[in-house]
Amino acid sequence: MPVQVNLTDRQQRVLWATVRHYIATAEPVGSKALVEEYNLSVSPATIRSAMGYLEKAGLLYQPHTSAGRIPSDSGYRIYVDQLITPSETLARQVDQLFSDRLNSDSWSFEALLRGAAQILATLSGYVTLVTMPQTNMARLRHLQIVQIEPRQVMLIVVTDAYETQSVLMELPQADSAQNQVEALADPELVERELQILSNFLNHQLRGRSLAELPSLDWSELGREFEQYADGLRASLADLMRRTQSPRTTQILVSGVSEVLRHPEFSELQQIQTIIHLLEEEQDQLWPLIFEYPDSESLGKRATVRIGAENRLEPIRTCTLISATYRRGTVPVGSVGVLGPTRMVYENAIAMVEAAADFLSETLS
Q: Which distant-in-sequence residues (6+ apart) come within 8 Å of 46 by Cβ?
């Protein structure tokens, strides 16, 4: 949400120094502190004049008349959009840390997401939010039919997000008592048939979305396997219905204890309303964290919502930074951090983008 204010180079430097000092100290900033700690190469009177202009422009404000100034939401917006760039060095370090600590080969993708959320919360010091992949957008990676009992099999589907869905299916009755006896007496015959069926389904469905499962062309299935068609069709339809469940909006939350260290969250009632939102009202939060970034046209990968830019009342004093992770070019989930508006933005943005990139690479 760009703020239209024309600032001189000097006014930009004073705004940058003011925001940076306030982020570091959580104390209102006066001109004396900027003179002592930042090499702005101007007199204290000039700094006071610049701060006065920034206040009139709505970028700074005084919490009370005798205090220094602190950034407004609009001041932070100018700071984020025009005065900083995410730390590339930190992004590389975070990516390496994820690679070292998270084993994408042996972990389920959900476990990987939980691990990433915990690491990001510890590194950032903010609440971390990671959405589970949208399973209705996920595509089939592998399918297998495994015999459980003489007349019962399990149909197992693995998506490209490494999520697993399974459903039990009864085997059809043989055409005659003699064939039924032969089938029960020769489990290897049943196993061969189930493997052929698995191969057929993998050939037909690999790479297709789960929503396409019931539309399989059964005409290519040989006559000797037609008896399985109705059961498989019903089982695949059952799996598809499950993928449309509300679980697709689940958000993994980590780091609530981390954010309590910030003075902005010292009021018990405020943190309670935020925790209630995170635990009980994820359906409201989910559309806010998972959507196409508004800033993509500007070449930025992360979306930064500052203070009142957040639509939900409990977090209108917070900043939410999020970035989508993708399967190929399609966004399937999002990772973000939630903290005070007094945030180290260049680091937080870099960490969120690095986490999203790592998850995207893992999915591919």
A: 10
Distance CA 280, CA 257 (A): 18
Q: What is the mean pLDDT of residues 180-185?
A: 48
Cα 110–Cα 258–Cα 162 angle in degrees, nearest 5: 5
Summary mean pLDDT of the chain: 83
The strand pairing partners of 310, in sequence order, are none
Tell me the residue type at 283.
Answer: D
Alpha helix (H) residue ranges in 244-327? 256-259, 268-280, 282-289
Contacts of 271 (CB under 8 A, 6+ apart): 259, 260, 265
Q: Is 62 in contact with 28 (CB distance < 8 Å)?
A: yes
Cβ neighbours, 10 Å, residue 314: 19
- The reported pTM is 0.70
> Phi, psi (5° rounding) for residue 170?
-80, 135
Q: What is the pLDDT of residue 17?
A: 96
- The answer to whether 212 touches 243, Cβ cutoff 8 Å, is no
3 state DSSP class of 166: strand
Question: What residue type is assigned to position 282 of the chain?
Answer: Q
Rounded CA gap, 73 and 88, in Å? 25
Cα–Cα distances (Å) from 25 to 80, 100, 181, 350, in that order, read 18, 33, 80, 22
In a 10 Å sphere around its CB, with 0-12 CB exposed, 13-18 middle and 19+ buried, how is residue 185 labelled?
Answer: exposed
The arrangement of secondary structure in 140-245, i.e. its CATH architecture, is: 2-Layer Sandwich (3.30)
pLDDT band at 218 (very low <50, low <70, confident <90, very high): low
Using CA atoms, how far apart are residues 348 and 100, in angstroms rounded to an integer?
20
Helix pair angle (268-280, 282-289), 10° resolution: 80
CA 110 to chain centre: 12
Kindly report the CA angle at 213 between 153 and 109, in degrees rounded to 5?
80
Q: Above 50 in pLDDT, residue 38?
A: yes
Q: Where are the domains of the chain?
A: 9-83, 88-132+250-363, 140-245
Asked if 126 contacts 258 with a C-beta cutoff of 8 angstroms, the reply is yes
In the CATH scheme, what is the code of domain 88-132+250-363?
A: 3.30.450.40
